[in-house]
Specification:
Blueprint lengths: L24 H11 L15 E5 L2 E4 L4 E4 L2 H4 L8 H11 L13 H13 L6 E5 L2 H18 L9 E5 L8 H5 L4 H4 L10 E3 L16 H14 L4 E6 L3 E2 L5 E2 L4 H12 L2 E5 L23 E4 L11 E5 L1 H5 L21 H16 L2 H19 L5 E7 L2 E9 L4 E2 L6 H10 L3 E2 L1 E3 L2 E4 L7 H19 L1
Parallel strand pairs: 3-16, 5-6, 5-7, 7-10, 10-11
Antiparallel strand pairs: 1-2, 2-3, 4-12, 8-9, 11-12, 13-14, 14-15, 14-18, 17-18
């Protein structure tokens, strides 16, 4: 035993890997069960599925089985797996430098990526703060909004509260939980964070009462009442534009985003738009907020930012916000917040290449026929015996599984019908991820029309298998 080893502890295996053949699939599955704690997964019930490689819209497991990537690898893959231009950009950057800190210095690739993001984003968003994931982008916006009001001219330190939409999901870190509204994700940690002021979602029924979603007019009236009643105490309102993804694909009525933006401007409340899930073409435009001509004070991006290749997030904001943080060291106006891998050049290189692919391959122009093909399948599947509500926005759709179609009575949650449907779909060649008893389709934008047909067929069969 080495002299430095604590008494009673045996040294682990040497750090170097064996030159022998890589571990067999069965051994890897065993190690997966033994060592890996998977996100949003009850590990006592977990059955390993190891994805070894990807090809376009397809994923291949360690046994050679092929699956359509129906959830875009958790909503982040944009141009398909192993896109040659993205692979080349990653390799080229690795040949220069893999990582440099963004704390007080930079690198050419990250600088160019920031500039390109400003160019493609809604007007007025001139400043880019890089972080590592969607939750981090949200935390950045929340903290910037809070600090902004303490340093504004004149300061308004009473502006400390946030308004959020019911059933909102903005991530799993504590600040994001504070503005989140999906109880199964947030209730456990409520004592550790703050509570936002809630606006009932106009995109879906109230989960507590089952009451239908409020109308557009009712929703905007509620927003106006809250902004009026809490005048002088609100830092910002945060929302996902057009569709609340993790809530269950709750699609907002047209005009809600524009109305909320107008009310925030009228009451001088900062607007944070979370486009972590819906940005980069998911709704049919580069950013969802473009569809209602809205430029927010903060735009939060992740997932598709690097086309699903590497973890990276960005929070874009305005000159107005930026200026409130400027001063000398002794003014103590600095934004003391950041992450080790914020602005990572490998991720920035792939992000740049992704924007090139959007432009050169005319990705957005290719989406309308794909959206319409999916719409036809959604309409057909809405008639299934155990499908209640269906919702689609762009190239994403959600199907509510119900025990009784006539009354919309839900299945007992313990039966896990949504998960059962997704597991059944695997047998028919599609990988899906449910949201409770909502089955979600959100494939890569590069999916072909024929692949959409295959994905819809596998989804429909999975739903039938799990509900009949």
């Amino acid at each position: 035993m080495p002299p430095s080893s604590p008494a009673g502890l045996q040294p682990r295996a040497p750090l170097g890997r064996s030159p022998e053949a890589p571990p067999a699939a069965d051994l890897l599955r065993s190690w997966d069960r033994e060592h890996v704690w998977h996100a949003f997964t009850q590990m006592q019930e977990y059955e390993p599925l190891l994805i070894e490689r990807g090809e376009g819209s397809w994923l291949v497991d360690t046994d050679g089985r092929r699956y359509l990537d129906g959830s875009a690898s958790m909503w982040c893959n944009v141009h398909g797996h192993r896109h040659p231009r993205l692979d080349a950009a990653l390799a080229a950057q690795a040949g220069k430098v893999a990582h440099t800190t963004n704390l007080g210095l930079s690198n050419p690739t990250t600088v160019e990526f920031a500039r390109r993001l400003v160019e493609v984003s809604p007007p007025g968003l001139e400043k880019v703060f890089f972080s590592g994931d969607g939750s981090s982008a949200i935390e950045t916006a929340l903290k910037m909004a809070f600090q902004y009001w303490t340093q504004a001219e004149p300061p308004q330190p009473d502006r400390t509260r946030f308004v959020a939409i019911g059933e909102a999901y903005h991530g799993d870190t504590l600040g994001a939980i504070g503005v989140g509204g999906v109880d199964r994700f947030t209730a456990m940690f409520a004592p550790l964070t703050f509570e936002a002021i809630r606006v009932p979602s106009p995109g879906g029924p109230c989960p507590a009462t089952g009451n239908p979603a409020p109308s557009l007019a009712e929703s905007l009236a509620t927003v106006e009442r809250i902004l009026t009643e809490h005048a002088g105490t609100l830092a910002a309102l945060i929302m996902e534009p057009l569709v609340q993804a993790a809530a269950g694909i709750y699609v907002h009525p047209r005009g809600f985003l524009r109305g909320v933006a107008d009310l925030c401007r009228r009451h001088d409340v900062l607007l944070i738009l979370d486009e972590v899930a819906v940005g980069f073409g998911r709704t049919g435009t580069m950013f969802a907020c473009e569809q209602e001509n809205v430029s927010p004070d903060f735009l939060c991006l992740a997932k598709g930012l690097t086309a699903g290749y590497l973890p990276m997030a960005a929070t874009l904001t305005t000159e107005r916000v930026w200026n409130a943080f400027l001063g000398t060291h002794t003014d103590r106006r600095t934004f003391f917040h950041g992450h080790t891998y914020g602005g990572n050049p490998l991720a920035a290189a792939v992000g740049l290449a992704s924007l090139d692919v959007f432009h050169d391959e005319r990705v957005l122009e290719s989406l309308p026929p794909k959206i319409e093909r999916l719409r036809g399948h959604v309409e057909r599947m809405s008639r299934l015996d155990h499908v209640g509500g269906v919702r689609q926005c762009g190239l994403l759709a959600g199907f509510d599984l119900v025990a009784d179609k006539a009354t919309a009575a839900a299945y007992p949650w313990q039966e896990k019908r949504g998960m059962r449907a997704c597991l059944a779909s695997r047998k028919h060649g599609a990988l899906l991820r449910p949201l409770g008893d909502v089955v979600v389709i959100m494939p890569p934008l590069s999916i072909t029309l024929d692949e959409i047909d295959l994905l819809a067929a596998a989804t429909e069969t999975g739903i039938r298998d799990a509900t009949e």
